[in-house]
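Protocol step 4 of 5: obtain the predicted structure for the target chain.
Materials: sequence only (see below). No template structures provided, no constraints applied. The aim of this step is simply to have a reference model before the mutagenesis design in step 5. Sequence pasted as it appears in the construct record:
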Amino acid sequence: MTAAETRIVTEDGLEARIAAIVEPVIEEIGYRLVRVRVSGMNGKTVQIMAERPDGTMDVEGCEEVSRAISPVLETEDPVDGAYHLELSSPGIDRPLVRESDFETWAGFLMKVETSRLVAERKRFRGKVIKVENGAIRIERDQPAYGEPASVEIPLDAIADARLVLTDELISASLRADKARRKGRVADGTGDIEEPADGDESEPRSH
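Step 4 output (structure tokens):
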């Protein structure tokens, strides 16, 4: 199996422990971990966001990942008390966690937060125009007076990044989804009906 691309945006604390447990299992069955979040929703919710290597995800994929990671989470038991395990797709306004994500979504509006000051800021909004030499270059969206039109951000400085929901992004996502579904029909691996949004949730008790 080809080694999966390492995430550059990762978790801390409990979320990091959960990610370390589930990521190898998710990769073993041919998917990629996008993000782990633990929240106080419904008492306590552990959200695992995952996708196929081509960026797609559906209900069937969420169910497959859930079945694979549930026994491991039961054994390792990283979360105190009862919780809901929720599997979901990244969504259209997805987090960007790998270098290839910035390459794939170059030209689309995104928000980026850094762990250290870059060009005297930690928050940026704009479109990626270049990804090279361990950094991204963002063309800023409405830069303040006196600020440069673009800024280079080292990948190792990125703490959080996600796409901004725009009409352009929605249209591009719909076109890409339609093309992928037509491809699955052509090779006999699927039908052309609209897939449901990936989201699988189940309660866990410890």
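Step 4 remarks: The CA atoms of residues 5 and 98 lie 7 Å apart. Residues 13-91+195-204 form a domain with the GMP Synthetase; Chain A, domain 3 fold (CATH 3.30.300.70).
Proceed to step 5.
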